[in-house]
Amino acid sequence: MTDLTTAERIRGLIRDVPDFPKPGIVFKDLCPVWGSGDAMAELAVAMSAPYDPAGVHALVGIESRGFLVGTAMSMKMGKGLVLVRKKGKLPGTVVSRSYDLEYGQDTLEVQANALRPGMKVVMVDDLLATGGTMKAAMALVESQGAEIIGVSFVVELGFLEGRKALGDTTCYSLVRY
Amino acid sequence: MTDLTTAERIRGLIRDVPDFPKPGIVFKDLCPVWGSGDAMAELAVAMSAPYDPAGVHALVGIESRGFLVGTAMSMKMGKGLVLVRKKGKLPGTVVSRSYDLEYGQDTLEVQANALRPGMKVVMVDDLLATGGTMKAAMALVESQGAEIIGVSFVVELGFLEGRKALGDTTCYSLVRY
Questions:
Q1: Cβ(A85)–Cβ(B67) under 8 Å?
Q2: CA torsion, ordered B64, B66, B70, B71, to nearest 10 deg
Q3: What does the pLDDT look like over B18-32, one tens digit per residue?
Q4: What is the pLDDT of residues A15-38, one digit of tens each?
Q5: ipTM of the predicted structure?
Q6: CA distance B165 to chain A (A)
Q7: pLDDT above 60 for A162
Q8: N or C end: fewer C-beta atoms under 10 angstroms in chain A?
Q9: Measuring CA to CA, which residue among B104, B75, B26, B142 is closest to residue A41?
């Protein structure tokens, strides 16, 4: 390998895709990261590093790219992954939270028995943009009494100031734009 | 631990949820598996065991629970994960394949540059039911010249005879019903 840092190597794999999913948006494509076994191993180490596994009961991953990062951190830290999904995808009794999008609303759900009061969790997704989805996911998790000890992203679009939506919770991102 | 096998331990975690996603279906809920760090570590070992990593270039995971299993195997085998997603989710140039559902059609996509002729891949999803989705995903992958050396599931609903849809490709499942 080279003497690049993990963050630099991951950044080097990310592709800009203009006008996706709609005109004017430059999408950060992380598929080359998921597609590299070496990159995923490094990513799991780097993204788990801020946390002491002894103080974490579970990770919480947001559908569906958060499942990729969440599983990688889960495997590294030896902790389970709780899924936050779009409405109607999770079986059994769920709790829901709706949030506003640019146009309309969306709803996130978590299984009612997945979290317990006092559980310490780390929230995980691939990318922090405006933070709307993560803010709603955090409120959902906190409504179950779980304590969020950190929020982790592979990529942060700093110019969108999504951190402001996340309040005082400690936020980590591997690659910033 | 006990002297249960990995398959027995995983089976013990799976929950039956009646009438999901619609009346008459008994859904196999694997959330307790994803939610256990120990189970995921064991699952990754057991599901990777049939394959020699030296003969595998990549794993291919099907949205979205296939991303959980696919990442776990990816981390264990040190191989990248190629995503097969529903229509419109993957950025850049994609290749598509539509397939028939009970009512209507669905379309799967893969990035055009994700696979190359001669690449040896393992297809991964959480559950084999009738095999329709996996059959379409396999055709998509093979249309790019990749060679499928095996197909792996956590759960197989044997009574639905989904293996028949997968042709001669070697198929592994950890837990069978």
A1: no
A2: 30
A3: 999 999 999 999 999
A4: 999 999 999 999 999 999 999 999
A5: 0.96
A6: 25
A7: yes
A8: N
A9: B75
